[in-house]
Input
Amino acid sequence: MKLSTRHLLSINDLSRKDVLTILQTAVSFKEISERPIKKVPTLRGRTVINCFFEDSTRTRLSFELAEKRLSADSSNIGKSGSAMAKKGETLLDTIRNIEAMRPDILVIRHSAAGAPAQAATATRAHVINAGDGMHEHPTQALLDLMTINEVKGRIKGLKVGIAGDILHSRVARSNMLLLKKMGIDVIVAGPPTLLPVGVEEVFGVRTCYDIREALPELDVLMLLRVQRERMGEQFFPSAREYARYFGVSNESLKGCKDDLVIMHPGPVNRGVEITADVADGPRSVILGQVTNGVAVRMAVMYLLLGDGPSE
Amino acid sequence: MTSYFITNGRVIDPAAKMDAKLSVHIEHGKIVSVSQSKKAPDGATVIDAAGCIVAPGFIDMHAHLRDPGFEYKEDIESGTRAAAAGGFTTVCCMPNTNPVNDSTSVTEYILERARQVGAIEVRPIGAITKGLAGENLAEIGDMAKAGAVAITDDGRPVMNSGIMRRAMEYAKAFDLVVISHCEDLHLAAGGVMHEGNVSTELGLGGIPAAAEEAMVARDIMLAELTGARLHIAHASSAGTVRLIRDAKERGVAVTAEVTPHHLTLTEEAVSDYDPNAKVNPPLRTEADKRALIKALADGTIDVIATDHAPHDITDKEVGFEDASFGMIGFETMLPLALALVHDRALTMKRLVEALTSSPARILGLEGKGTLAPGKQADIVIFEPEHSWTVQAERFASKARNTPFDGLRARGKVRYTISRGKIVYSS
Output
């Protein structure tokens, strides 16, 4: 087994078959994390560099654990710890220097959209986009899909709502691409200021302002973090008003399907986009998403390197 | 002194309403005659222009030569050589240098430097406000007397409408045209490309067409209020075209220019995050592009100007969002513009006019943009049918920031003659 793409820069790089292969592999890898000795020798001798040019806790830890559990040798470059980034070196120069040390995989997070794609032009290693600006975060979408499949037992024909700051969200972009690719109906919702122009046409999704309008038909509701700094940019007047008209509470969930599942890529802003009772309530699979993140990243790295399991 | 006899070419001089197979005789740096004679005068070197257009040297009313201050990107010597290779004999350089051209000393430096090392002539454009800060008027009168041919804060808009009004009023005393870079900075904030489907897909901050159009509308109103002459720099949207067309119909003294890249490319050029396709104003939609071509053809847009914006690789290799805006344009202008002629979207006469008599008229460049006898011999000879491949590494410009590298081009400059001397030949 192996993927049809050399890099994972965008969900667009993956075929439907690739996606199913990743999900299948992730399910088998998930079990490793449940063992007392959480390590297999699969990627022994392989070198993975985690280049996190933008801060991250969850994603970085998730990748690091995935690497360790597959026995890869991994090193980290951070934003502040990187002399390269600090001394005015261009991104491409930094990547060329890393390339000279012969890594097998580069995991790249960057605040600028397109940075992993640009990096991929300067290295023979496989590049995994761990989030680039407002562009994409493909492994997040894959772990979301894995979670949906796990909880619902199916993918095709489901209806998923994505609510919140769609405009600035790379998670939303990757999810819209992935869910649509896999035959899921997607409805995105948020205040008009946070819906990107042309989103229906570009991603083939439906839109509404208030997610409550679409709620009765949804199987899954993904909520996105609303960054408080956006208020300074006048996308909405206050957190209080956002919560009242665009946030989700147990109250607003009235009329939803019995088996509606609530997801959130984190970090959760309790009291803004989601109330604590919903985030921590029985419908929430937020922590399950985090668990699946490690498995999905193990699967992606393993499949990109292309030495599938012996069958 | 050298004497040339350019024969067998099609001579197009829109200022003289001339378009015929004629011969041009030049001597002592001046045009002696344009006639049907086939016989070279004694002592004249013959230039065979068979298959070529012979036209007044092109005038680029919008370019960045980066000198003084950013000579690592371009300087007056390399910039004028690149311009000569593109068929230009006069280039007007924008004031966003370091120091800014907001004083006679910088204006005089540019003119003196161009006299010393320039392959062709340079005409500086002065700043509207000191330091391009948009707050206090620069010494516009002094710069005009020193040789500035227009004023602009290009690269930035004058956001304060009150100051823009005063600048327009004041410029009238020196008969200077005010060139406006139309961009509402609040609407454009955070944007790095056109706001539309491609920016949504790529997750890049968008600059809506309204950011340009709101300021075009404002400046047209201010031109009406003040009676000043307004020139809209690098028009990029269908909405801008509509506003200019409407203003011209009402008799407002407004003119406009368009760049070769806005006539050629759309937002799609950005889709692989090519930093060389990052320009301001941004490349917009197919409908915008079509509107610009039509406006150029019907005269709503008067001028083709390159907005030649050289950058060093370190300004561009930093990722799309952080990369500087701008692309170079001198050495690719002609084949890009000629593509419209080859596609029959533009006449050859209109193309030549937009590069010669139109900018000369707008800027009041006496004796330029024409082949009239007695005028300075600034001439371009180009072969519209010649096919070649654009190779950025061979450019005379110091910069390589072009998305057209490798383009199969049709139309090549054969000779550029500035002040009676051959400054470029291929």
In short: Chain A has a mean pLDDT of 93. Residues 161 and 184 of chain A are 10 Å apart (CA to CA). The radius of gyration of chain A is 19 Å. Residues 286-305 of chain A form the longest helix (20 residues).
